Amino acid sequence: MVGPNGEQVGIVRVEDALRLAAEADLDLVEVAPMARPPVAKLMDFGKFKYEAALKAREARKNQVNTVIKEIKLRPKIDPHDYGTKKGHVERFLKAGDKVKVTIMFRGREQSRPELGFRLLQRLAEDITELGYVESSPKQDGRNMVMVLAPTKKKADARAEQRRRRELSSMPGPDDATDPAIDTAIDTAIDTAIDTASDPASDPATGPEPGTVPAASAPAASAPAAAPAPSAPATPRPRPRPAPPTKTAASAESA
Predict the structure, then answer these.
(1) How many CA atoms lie within 13 A of 131 on its CB side?
(2) For a FRET experiment, which of 120, 150, 180, 206 has its CA 20 to 30 Å from that of 140?
């Protein structure tokens, strides 16, 4: 039997081993049942299972799965499309993945395999800094295949990406508070408060004796308001002329 700290207890009976396990509040676990005599150990079995699960999780996290990406091209590909495809290949290689490049031939293009070979050579030269040719171009029916492998291991690529994320999440120098800026802001606020509380500029108390009032700045001329439309004037009736009166001379002539 093995003790809880790894010490050798010796050969003991099963009843004695169970009694020791109960006294130590531990479990009696058989670790080597095929040995003669069998080997048992005093341990906390729940804690043992938890630690084993943590180790398995860490092993899965550090495990690297080989992934092969595939990119398909045509012998007469447009230059802009070639640039786009090359960008995908570079992104895959930076992530630590292999890339399988396939050239597809159609119709009479099968009689010109050198076009695909030249295109694959050009691609291999463009990504020399990120990868290398693991499998040289080979004709496979209507297709020509080449495999590119990254120069950086996938574990290193993942570690670099994780480091970049941590650096991008850290606060930069612009986020820190500058004490000189804080001092300037506090000084400006105190000056504004002192100016507002100065009795010389208080309109209720007026200027202090012996001070010359400063010339007031001309107020900004406000746009003149349009005159309100007046009501139309009501025409006054004209007085009618009085009828002529008969004089004495006209009466005598009558």
Answers:
(1) 28
(2) 150
